[in-house]
Inverse folding.
């Protein structure tokens, strides 16, 4: 009897473990480290621009940023400092734990499927052009030296803030990076991550005395073309940034 009981107990435990395996696969695991991604369009030979080190201990409070954040759609024609652009890029997708390569925004499995492009128009000490942000080196890689602001404005259904902005930021994603581990849940995870990144960007803009508006209405193909996205990437979010007019 004891033997039969033991066999039944062992069989029960085995069934329980087997039934948990798929669930464990779907749960967030603490990975050994993030999968490092090459920039999606692999244009690492482009001209590289160093960015100032981001400030990590300003006195601007998080509550103040929550309170002040508003979608602002009119900007002045002032230039924005390179340090503010640097700060915003770091908040959007920068490295906050250099040892493990973890970033300022969470990412399912630390796989980091998002890429950030900048369409620069009026940034001090940065020529106009389209740039890819490289989080690891905290640098900008030039991918197009034309000012594409007017074309991006047209791709964004002629929304005025895009044309007025000192720079526009495009958050794009490669769903396959997340799908390799999370299958059908990848789309959900990637969209959640874009939201995290967008909120960081918006709050950091406020803390820099700047303003933005999240833009989801645009022609995907045209915006992708203008910002040098690879075939694997989809543009998800556009953020014009500038000094608020009011
Ligand atoms: C996913 C998403 C897409 C949006 N797309 C646009 C857009 O294309 N154009 C625009 O002017 N505002 C857009 N907005 C901004 C909303 O209109 C704005 O957040 C809303 O009016 C609330 O105002 P607040 O951001 O000042 O709180 C978008 C917001 C979100 C979250």
């Amino acid at each position: 009897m004891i033997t039969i009981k033991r066999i039944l107990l062992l069989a029960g435990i085995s069934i329980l473990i087997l039934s948990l395996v798929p669930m464990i696969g779907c749960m967030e695991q603490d990975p050994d480290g993030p999968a490092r991604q090459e920039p999606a369009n692999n244009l690492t030979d482009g001209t590289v621009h160093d960015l100032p080190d981001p400030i990590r201990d300003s006195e601007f409070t998080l509550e103040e940023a929550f309170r002040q954040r508003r979608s602002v759609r009119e900007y002045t024609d002032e230039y924005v400092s390179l340090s503010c652009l640097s700060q915003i890029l770091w908040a959007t997708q920068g490295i906050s734990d250099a040892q493990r390569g973890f970033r300022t925004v969470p990412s399912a499995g630390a796989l980091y499927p998002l890429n950030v492009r900048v369409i620069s128009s009026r940034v001090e000490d940065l020529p106009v052009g389209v740039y890819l942000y490289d989080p690891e080196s905290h640098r900008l890689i030039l991918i197009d030296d034309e000012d594409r602001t007017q074309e991006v404005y047209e791709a964004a259904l002629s929304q005025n803030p895009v044309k007025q902005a000192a720079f526009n930021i495009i958050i794009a994603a490669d769903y396959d990076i997340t799908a390799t581990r999370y299958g059908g849940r990848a789309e959900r995870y990637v969209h959640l991550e874009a939201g995290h990144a967008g909120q960081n960007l918006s709050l950091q803009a406020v803390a820099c005395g700047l303003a933005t508006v999240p833009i989801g209405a645009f022609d995907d193909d045209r915006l992708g073309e203008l910002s040098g996205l690879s075939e694997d990437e989809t543009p998800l979010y556009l953020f014009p940034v500038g000094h608020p007019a009011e």
The chain is about 40% helix and 20% strand. The longest strand covers residues 234-242. The helical segments are 2-26, 62-68, 82-93, 149-155, 160-164, 175-182, 186-207, 220-226.
